[in-house]
Amino acid sequence: MTELRCRKSDTLEGDNEEEEEKHQTDPELDTKDGVCCHIWAGVDETSVSRGAADENLQQREENEVKDDEPEQEESSTPQSAVRASRSLSASGFLQRLVRVFFGCLAAVACGMLYAVYLSTYHDRKFWFSTRQELEREITFQEGSGLYYYYYKHMLAAPSFERGFYELTIDNKTVSGQTINAVERLSLYPELITSFVYRITGSQDFVEPVYFYVGAVFGLQAVYVTALFVCSWVMSGTWVAGMLAVAWYVINRPDTTKVDQALPLRDNWALPYFSCQVAALTGFLSNNISSATEMFCYLTMSATTFTFLLVWEYSHYVLFVQGLCLFLLDSFDLVPPRKMADIHKVYLSSLFLAYLFQFQNAALLSSPLLSLLIGSVLARYFQQKMKMGPLVARVMKLFLHFHLVFTTGITFSYLVKKLIPVSESDFILKFLEVKFGLNTTTDFVTNFLLCQESLQTPGQDLFLRLTQASVLPFYLLVLSVCLLSTLQTIYRRLSGQPMKTNHRLEDGRIGEQPEVIYHVFHTLFFGGLALLFDGLKYLWTPYVCMFTAFGVCSPGLWMTVFRWLKLKSIHPVVLSLILSTAVPTIIGFSLWREYCPRVLAELSDLPEFYDPDTVELISWIRSQTPVAAVFAGSPHLLGTIKLCSGAAVTSLPLYSDIDLLRRTEDTYQVYAMRSAEDVYKLLTSQKTTYVIIEESICHELALNKVCGIKNLLDISNGHVVYDKGEIYSFSKHRRFCNEIKLKYSPYTNYFTRVFWNRSYHVYKVNSVISFQY
């Protein structure tokens, strides 16, 4: 019996793992073994002494105790693991919550401080709080006061509905025309602001002008907050957001036009675009929950529609963004489901904007809609485009590009044939002249080419960005991300799958869809900014954001170290150190050098005062009839319309070809034209008073081609430039100089009624006197 017992114990000891598996699979084994032991013990009692039986019983008890110990340990191990995982998840959630709280607090604080800074800067620059109402309104420069006039009109109307109706049939702005001012001037910002001012009862505690200015500054706070969030989402640390805001504020002359003219459409629209880009960045990210993705989707939908609603050029900006997303989809860098959702956002926003803008034909012929139509049709016909070997996929890709752009161009051509859009042909002619493919003597085309925003930026732009240290780091970050993106594109075309869960050790910053989008975004808008100076306001803010993300991202440094095959120091540790140390050093240097300069801007400000314009407006208010019509330069006419409400012959709106043609007729007072010709042009626009500005009549343009007088002479054929030589062919002298001499025939058509150092106002005689 002892021998059998020993063999059984050896078997248990030798096959311990097998027994454990049997215990797990067959729970009846323990019961059977117990029964056998009891039977065997009964047989032993008749032939074995009591001492041996006691010894056997003691040994069995010890074995049972030993067998019970692993079971207790196995039952306690899962419970301890569950408790540990729960404690770790709770602590991780708490840490994430704390980081998000402080990040949101920092984002809101940056936005609010920037808004306060802008408000203080504006007040001290224009002495806004100490001025009278007329002097405050004159501070709206570059003709932007026209938009504020409609805001005042909405508040003066007996009801919001009545004011809105009057703006849709406005016959008191442009002489001889009835226009829909809401559609033509994109007045939804003024409509919304006036509506909020009414329903909140703000008239009891804040003046209308302060409410309007405060709304603009509030949107600028939203602007920098969105840039903060965008950089934070991409890098994973809100330090990147603070660095992005710092660079944005330091480079303010190149990032925003809010210092120049508050009511411009750019200042209302670009904050919404910034929010849309931030929401799109989160939506493209792979590491987000379904609830966060839905929030980003809804935010993107609302901001895209609002952006289209408040700016007439917004669909061109979204077209460039659509090209970036089109490349992501073509290279299979983003899930098709997300691209389908983005297409829905674009199409629904275009449809709603088309309805809210009174069936605006420009949206139907927009390149954005053409791109969407071409992309949707191409995806339907090329469902297997993203399959096959490398060479086949490249060939399919070229075919896809050809199909998309051919379909889009055809659709745009058909729409323009069915719904004629006058601006489309002019834009093509303008681009031909801009890129040197053609020449023209047309005044409007050359006038637009001479606008600073449409000229090529100078070297001072890149010098300022370099001095602020943003450009060197931008080129470094862009180079790394672009090379990593190209590697990712090659892998995708070769058929390799794209990772969705990225680890820091991988060192592949270019596999993140949101990073790839911003690489394309900054390349496209950067290329446009090199052609048109005004588009730098769409590029430099995202240069600041993108650069801040790069220097603060451990993934970017890890990508560089993977390329260098760094082995002396652990690359993960070094990337974490550099992603903290580099932005800290940059931030400290920026604080030391630029913080005193930014604060000094609030104290060392020259006083802005224009007494000649104040005198002119005061005379118009007191000495001219209500039905008077004024002709002059567009910027001056915008101020006159704001301060007096009088009708004008043209408006400072450079997107309207008809208004630009009327401006050309008004500018003939500075050309070498006869008194009779000028009189006929002015009376055709029902002009009562014409204003001649000394600054234009005696301007000394650094660029001879871009002076108003020179543009008129070229357009009228009075001056010809040939190999550096100037030839004049006009038989009349310059009108603005000759009319001041007060001799016939000028006195027959015009009578001077007001003058000061800057302005001469002449009444257009309704009855012509032929006295010589």
Automatic annotation (TrEMBL):
<feature type="transmembrane region" description="Helical">
    <location>
        <begin position="209"/>
        <end position="227"/>
    </location>
</feature>
<feature type="transmembrane region" description="Helical">
    <location>
        <begin position="97"/>
        <end position="117"/>
    </location>
</feature>
<keyword id="KW-0472">Membrane</keyword>
<feature type="compositionally biased region" description="Basic and acidic residues">
    <location>
        <begin position="1"/>
        <end position="11"/>
    </location>
</feature>
<dbReference type="InterPro" id="IPR018732">
    <property type="entry name" value="Dpy-19/Dpy-19-like"/>
</dbReference>
<feature type="transmembrane region" description="Helical">
    <location>
        <begin position="572"/>
        <end position="591"/>
    </location>
</feature>
<comment type="similarity">
    <text>Belongs to the dpy-19 family.</text>
</comment>
<keyword id="KW-0808">Transferase</keyword>
<feature type="transmembrane region" description="Helical">
    <location>
        <begin position="471"/>
        <end position="493"/>
    </location>
</feature>
<keyword id="KW-0328">Glycosyltransferase</keyword>
<feature type="transmembrane region" description="Helical">
    <location>
        <begin position="394"/>
        <end position="415"/>
    </location>
</feature>
<feature type="compositionally biased region" description="Acidic residues">
    <location>
        <begin position="64"/>
        <end position="74"/>
    </location>
</feature>
<dbReference type="Pfam" id="PF10034">
    <property type="entry name" value="Dpy19"/>
</dbReference>
<feature type="compositionally biased region" description="Basic and acidic residues">
    <location>
        <begin position="21"/>
        <end position="32"/>
    </location>
</feature>
<keyword id="KW-1133">Transmembrane helix</keyword>
<keyword id="KW-0812">Transmembrane</keyword>
<protein>
    <submittedName>
        <fullName>Probable C-mannosyltransferase DPY19L4 isoform X1</fullName>
    </submittedName>
</protein>
<feature type="region of interest" description="Disordered">
    <location>
        <begin position="47"/>
        <end position="83"/>
    </location>
</feature>
<feature type="transmembrane region" description="Helical">
    <location>
        <begin position="514"/>
        <end position="532"/>
    </location>
</feature>
<dbReference type="GO" id="GO:0000030">
    <property type="term" value="F:mannosyltransferase activity"/>
</dbReference>
<feature type="transmembrane region" description="Helical">
    <location>
        <begin position="538"/>
        <end position="560"/>
    </location>
</feature>
<feature type="transmembrane region" description="Helical">
    <location>
        <begin position="317"/>
        <end position="334"/>
    </location>
</feature>
<dbReference type="GO" id="GO:0005637">
    <property type="term" value="C:nuclear inner membrane"/>
</dbReference>
<feature type="transmembrane region" description="Helical">
    <location>
        <begin position="364"/>
        <end position="382"/>
    </location>
</feature>
<feature type="region of interest" description="Disordered">
    <location>
        <begin position="1"/>
        <end position="32"/>
    </location>
</feature>
